[in-house]
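The following block was generated as part of the benchmark described in Methods. Ligand: OXT.
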Amino acid sequence: MQNTQNQEMTDGMHIMVEALKMNGLDTVFGVIGIPVTDMARHMQEVGLRYIGFRHEQSAGNAAAISGFMTQKPGICLTVSAPGFLNGLTALATATVNGFPMIQISGSSERPKIDLQQGDYEGLDQMNVAKPFCKAAYRIDRPEDIAIGLARAIRAAVSGRPGGVYLDLTTALLGSMIDKASATKTLFKVLEPAPKSIPASTSIDRALTLLAAAKKPLIIIGKGAAYAQADANIKAFVEKTGIPFLPMSMAKGLLPDDHPQSAAAARGLVMKEADVVMLIGARLNWLLAHGKGKHWNPDGKLIQIDIEPQEIDSNRRIDAPIVGDIASAMDAMVAGLGTHNIKPQSDWVDSVNKEKEQNFVKMDAKLNSTSIPMNYFNALKAVRDVLDKNKDIYVVNEGANTLDDGRNVINMYYPRRRFDCGTWGVMGVGMGYVIGAAITGKKQVVAIEGDSAFGFSGMEVETICRYHLPVTILIFNNGGIYKGSDPNLGGGVDPSPTTLMADAHYEKMIEAFGGVGYHATTPDEIKKYLEQGIASKKPTIINCVIDPAVGTESGHIGNLNPKSAVKV
Ligand code: OXT
Ligand code: ADP
Ligand code: MG
């Protein structure tokens, strides 16, 4: 199209697509509708990958996990008001997890929204988004699109990564500008996540503290996994000989069968360590806030984090190292030449002894012959297959399915395990599965509680539509935590925790051309999982678990307030 001066014209949605492309943001996860439908079409037209979902929350979760895997912001596209709000949970979750993503949403007519005149899907989206994300911007003029995207990229990946909201009004998407002027505005953002090099004094202080430690411990969190400083973290752990404890999504950064892993001696190492070095892990609820009966009150703490305000957030940090983990670990490894760090041998011995005892207890559970299956004999079957398919993505959500799954399933490579994260969110499952399969171009196995799966189960159609190599195991114990609870009122309604134990989830995927299996024994799980992985076909295995075996809230029952008064 040309204007009256014979200039070739373009519009807001085309410029946005060009800006994404120029910045290497080549995959977009979303749900289309007014006013962004044509923008998604243009994405495909210029060679971007557009992955269409059934619900924006899953699209947002896919974008978030893609951001975690690649250090590039994952992009989620949503329509106005309800679509935007559906995506917002994922944006907030990404922000809490520290995953970089940008939710780009169309929005309705500003003048009508501002005067609250009842526009179609009218909502003041940018201001709604603000408290739930790291930054929120609205672009009103086509000449500002490249700058707007640059601000969003920088906010998402610099410092502590997080979610960014980018509002594109209907007027902007359709507004015309001559193509030559528009092209001049486009640019590629340079160094969006610049190095943040920690002070050498902070490195020296930390190394000195570690050198004086008798019972040191290293806790590795998902910030460390995100930082992709794998080689230096491994070198530091192995050169010092310090036991390490991986947080859930840091599993595999060093392999779970590493002799220095203290995962199976978690209680002991947290309680007894005299110096703990945190690498990209917050002292939040997942670490009992660094205090109380789980921790040594006299222990000293070192914390490596890019976010200065994280330091001293829950407990005094004796040696803060503020900087990016890659730079910090470079300096820490270099500093080993001048600091003699070595845990006392009786500390290592006591950690190993505790591990051995816990392995024996675990083996007894794993070798259970109970039918219907319990979590452990079912998980052992999964573990045995995954141990032969080490370079695979694992998505895990639920309560018992999550907590027992985390302990039983070994990870061998970094950034392969994706789960409920910092907020313990149900419903990340299928979004993470799709995001991982599309971004990592590898097979994905999901280990899902029956409740957890239900939050995003309709994305099975998306998985089949894109022919993704995904096997979903549904641990069907007929309930949230348990399927055997009674209705305390004695009525005919199921109890609040009850779901359908006799549900055949495997039939869902058959409706879309995938493969469904029903497994009642560990041997069947093994056989069907092997077939699912070998076939690379979208597969669901409905695993029948005894409804009576789950523990309320899994391993975090202590957080569940119990009614003191009996009904
Ligand atoms: O050392 P000690 O002696 O202490 O022993 C420890 C380890 O050393 C040892 N261990 C081992 N031994 C031997 N071998 C090995 N390999 C080994 N590994 C470890 O074992 C113990 C325990 O170790 P662990 O697990 O490391 O330690 P611990 O103490 O558990 O760690 C503490 C935590 C806090 C770090 C850990 O527990 C953790 O990461 N927890 C995460 C918990 C979480 O996020 N849960 C999800 C939320 S629960 C709840 O909220 C749910 N909802 C509500 C809801 C949510 N969440 N979201 C939304 C949007 N709506 C509603 C719902 C609806 S869960 C849920 C659904 C549940 O039903 P499902 O059907 O889906 O699932 P099922 O429960 O299966 O039915
Ligand atoms: P986990 O749940 O595994 O314990 P958290 O999400 O609590 O991990 O903590 C991750 C921490 O890592 C956050 O405080 C975040 O600021 C930090 N972080 C993320 N990326 C980097 C990085 N590249 N360099 C330094 N710190 C980082
Ligand atoms: Mg369940």
